[in-house]
Amino acid sequence: MIARAGTGPLRHLVVLRHAKSAWPSGTPDHERPLAPRGRRDAPAAGRALAAADLLPGLALCSTAVRARQTWEWASAQWGTPPPVRLDARVYAADAPDLLAVVRETPAEVETLLLVGHNPGLEDLVLDLAGDGLDDTLEEVRTKFPTSAIAVLAWRGTDWTALTPGTALLTSLIVARGGKSRPATP
């Protein structure tokens, strides 16, 4: 079963890998900030989501500084950002743990944004996608870079129904320096 099958409203899980981070000497991984490129790419991610009409009803974000800054810079591109839940479980989570967090989303949310880290995000996208449009699945398998946005669509009465293989990967966008481009060169 993929997005075209199932019952309930069409839902979107938008997965955003944090923008490029810096590596300041002596800074713990959790506290690493965005690099200058990341500060350019994060707003581009926000603009790409707005242009694709994928503004979320709720955002779930890792507590790591680079993920929080990505969220702040991206959501600043929208008129009124949605509520955000900072969740420590998203930091360094694997795909099953991320799916457990996503399944806690209230049923009234039809578009959810998840801001986090690799390899967990890439694995989650690949686990959930039963199919993909064009070459999107192969592109994710090849590379899910910083500021990548994967859009998964599926039908379900609530988020607990989201299981591996039930979503359609509809697009992959990589936001860069004020521009957004498809992941293919």
Count of distinct strands: 8
CATH architecture label of the domain at 12-21 and 29-128:
3-Layer(aba) Sandwich
Stretches where pLDDT falls below 50 for ≥5 residues?
none
Strand content: 25-35%
Strand and helix order: EHEHEHEHEHEEE
User: From the alpha-carbon coordinates, what is the Rg to the nearest angstrom?
Assistant: 15 Å
Percent helix: 25-40%
Described by strand count, sense and barrel closure, the largest sheet is: 8 strands, mixed
CATH superfamily of the domain at 12-21 and 29-128: Phosphoglycerate mutase-like
Total helices: the number is 5
Shape: globular
CATH class label of the domain at 12-21 and 29-128: Alpha Beta
Structural class: alpha/beta
Average pLDDT figure: 93
- The CATH topology of the domain at 12-21 and 29-128: Rossmann fold
Biased composition (Basic and acidic residues): 28-41
Region (Disordered): 21-41
Account of the protein in words:
- The chain is of the alpha/beta class and 185 residues long.
- It has a domain at 12-21 and 29-128: 3-Layer(aba) Sandwich (Rossmann fold), CATH 3.40.50.
- It has 5 helices and 8 strands.
- Strands 1, 2, 3, 4, 5, 6, 7 and 8 form an 8-stranded mixed β-sheet that branches.
- β2 (58-61), α2 (65-75) and β3 form a beta-alpha-beta unit.
- α1 packs across α2 (65-75) and α3 packs across α4.
- The longest helix is centred in the first third of the chain and has 16 residues, at 36-51.
- It starts with 9 loop residues before the first strand and ends with a strand.
- The mean pLDDT is 93.
Protein topology:
Layout: E1 10-17, H1 36-51, E2 58-61, H2 65-75, E3 84-86, H3 95-102, E4 111-116, H4 120-128, E5 129-132, H5 136-142, E6 148-155, E7 167-176, E8 179-182
Helix pairs in contact: 1-2, 3-4
Pfam families: His_Phos_1
Biased composition (Basic and acidic residues): 28-41
InterPro entries: His_Pase_superF_clade-1, His_PPase_superfam
